Amino acid sequence: MVQAKPGGERQVLESMYSMIALVFILVACVELCDAATVVDVYRLIQYDISGAPFGSRLANLNHHAGSLHFAPGSDLSRTVLIIPLRELNISFVKEYITQNQPLGGLLFLLPQIFSIENRERAKSNHQTDGEELLKNDLAELEKLLIHSKIPYPVYFAFEDDDIEAVLADVKRNDATGQPATATTGGYKLVVSVPEPKKRASPTITNIQGWLSGLKTDGDANQLPTIAVVASYDTFGAAPALSVGSDSNGSGVVALLEIARLFSVLYSNPKTRGRYNLLFGLTSGGPYNYNGTHKWLRSFDQRQRESIDYAICLNSIGSGDNDLWIHVSKPPENAYIKQIFEGFSNVAEELGVKVGLKHKKINISNPRVAWEHEQFSRLRVTAATLSELSVAPELLESTGSLVDGRPFVNEAAIIKSVKLVAESLARHIYGHEGKNVQIFADNSSLAVNPSYIKSWLDLLSQTPRVAPFLSKNDPFILALKKELEDHTDEVNVQHEVLDGMFTFYDSTRARLNVYQVASVTFDLLLLLVLGSYLIVLFSFLVITTRGLDDLISLFRRPPSRKVKTA
């Protein structure tokens, strides 16, 4: 009987230790056991220009959620502000960013109309006043963010029921003067991703295809060439959302359709023109058309001199009926007059108004505002056709968050295709000034709206920021295959992007939203569980060993001297 006592005590003590360990495990898990929702988020771009940092410089997030209803004077250094675009206060955001005020992070909630997956309004080109206002607000916000250095994480997400329910709770708590903190609880936003790393030697890829003109026997002279060019890559505040449906998805779609139309004409020797046609899909457009520069430099002098003129297509899908031809040479130049008159005549027949904009280039200035300027710097006659009357600033309007599928007008692209194709054809076949429709509707040479729509849909779902596209990206391979179907001698050129631009990865992530309890709740829970276990332990000892054994557990053991005596 005497030997059984230590074993019984040991069992009771082991049970007690197990229960205490369970208490600590439960308390440790209190903050993480109640996940409210998981959201796809898209990080603000992080990049450098000549070593100067821009964009969001951090990616990891682990702070409590807050709203714009926070109390004045609140410490937001460990708070992620959730800001719906519909409630955007651009002055507040600008103040916090420009004055470097402490903030844990920013999460902007965008309406579904700006989502890549949104197709509900793809067939409708009518914009409400509310949508136009949202577009303007988002464009202003994006301009602010991409030109600022922000020392905390900035993410974009799209509105849905889950995140809106979380925001409603956060607003309610903030309005009552109980913002989320470690002591009050609330919601915690967590993004766990590796530290952003530099993209080493990002590649830009140019794709070109030729349609050879008809050369008569005994003609030793090289045929003249007309080039049709469009830059296909984009740049925006969130690289994973930068699809550029209009800039410059519309230009790419138009180029492919023009190549398809002329491939039909040039497939028959009887209708093949005495001009070579060169189709170029270039990369590096947002970065001073760096890809175009390297593409042209790869030509030998003879090839460049053979180019009669080049037409660059840029943002032709959301205008009404106004287009502009931008040139670097004076309007009085004979070639420029010929190009403008040819386009103007066809535009009048189509009910489109075409204007001429002359902007002299400065060779010493590295800024290249339009793609045709890269041709002009090499003394090649060129022009850019665009709905934009003024060139955008560097890294602006080249695939922004507001440039999505619902805001592109397919009819505008079809008109632009007709304008370019008809103008080129009349020049090639000597029908300038004549009312001859070579690409007439309902003929075998008619523009194909289905073809335009399918490619526009693809481009509107494909982010195309060049530093994040590999050489063998499926999209680049798709462009190459499409040119191979309609042209000859398709070549692909891989180059390294200009070293003045540096980009960082980690463009998208998963945001975990946890509903966390307050420290007060944790302490109360610990007190309740501890009290319960003490009562349970006391009951077990009394019923199995008796009250004296329970009291003996809390007695001070006799000293060693007493035992020796």
From TrEMBL:
The keyword Transmembrane helix applies. Its main location: endoplasmic reticulum. One of its GO terms (cellular component) is endoplasmic reticulum membrane. This is Nicalin. Belongs to the nicastrin family. It is a single-pass membrane protein. It comes from Prunus avium (Cherry). The chain crosses the membrane at residues 523-547. It comes from the Eukaryota. Keywords: Endoplasmic reticulum, Glycoprotein, Membrane, Signal, Transmembrane, Transmembrane helix. GO terms for biological process: regulation of signal transduction. It is found in: Endoplasmic reticulum membrane. The lineage of its organism: Eukaryota, Viridiplantae, Streptophyta, Embryophyta, Tracheophyta. The keyword Signal applies.
